[in-house]
Write a structure and sequence with these properties.
- It is a single chain.
- It contains five helices and four strands; from the N terminus they run H-E-E-E-H-E-H-H-H.
- The protein has 148 residues and is α+β, with helices and mostly antiparallel strands.
- It has a four-stranded antiparallel beta sheet with strand order 1-3-4-2, covered by helices on one side.
- Helix 1 runs antiparallel to helix 2.
- The longest helix has 16 residues, at 2-17.
- The termini are far apart.
């Protein structure tokens, strides 16, 4: 007879212990909370969240400018799953928001350094990946006679 009473007291306690929370990490100037979400997935953690995924999470692949807001949240459903597994498995929702303002950096590039960048063979690969429409123009510019 004690087992149902124990279960009735333990289950609500587990649900309360698995509360919701949110952490935010900002890189660079960051992105606003209203910026569009470019990545949202559940990440797997274990032992009440003390053991995380084996691989590091690289958010720079989603926000090349480096201006981002990374949010990690334990939702009610995440907490419920953690409580039902007694904390063995603890999912957390991760969201990445990027600053899409298009602001330019104020840098000075000397002509010698610009030539070094443009005539580097890796430059054509980068242009092909980022803007295929400009690839032929970049290829023609590299093939043009150099004035040194």
């Amino acid at each position: 007879m004690k087992t149902p009473a124990r279960l009735a007291g333990t289950l609500p306690a587990l649900l309360l212990l698995g509360g919701c929370y949110k952490q935010a990490f900002v890189s660079g100037p960051g992105a606003s909370m209203n910026a569009p979400v470019v990545y949202e997935r559940s990440h797997h953690h274990f032992v009440w969240g003390l053991v995380g995924p084996g691989e590091a999470f690289d958010a720079s692949q989603f926000c090349p400018s480096g201006n981002m807001r990374i949010e990690q949240e334990q939702t009610f459903v995440n907490g419920l799953v953690a409580a039902l597994t007694s904390g063995i498995y603890v999912p957390r929702t991760v969201r990445v928001r990027c600053d899409r303002s298009g602001g330019a950096a104020d840098i000075e590039l000397l002509p010698e350094k610009a030539k070094q960048i443009v005539f580097d063979p890796a430059f054509l690969d980068w242009v092909r990946e980022t803007n295929p429409k400009l690839f032929e123009a970049a290829q023609a510019a590299q093939a043009a006679p150099r004035s040194r």
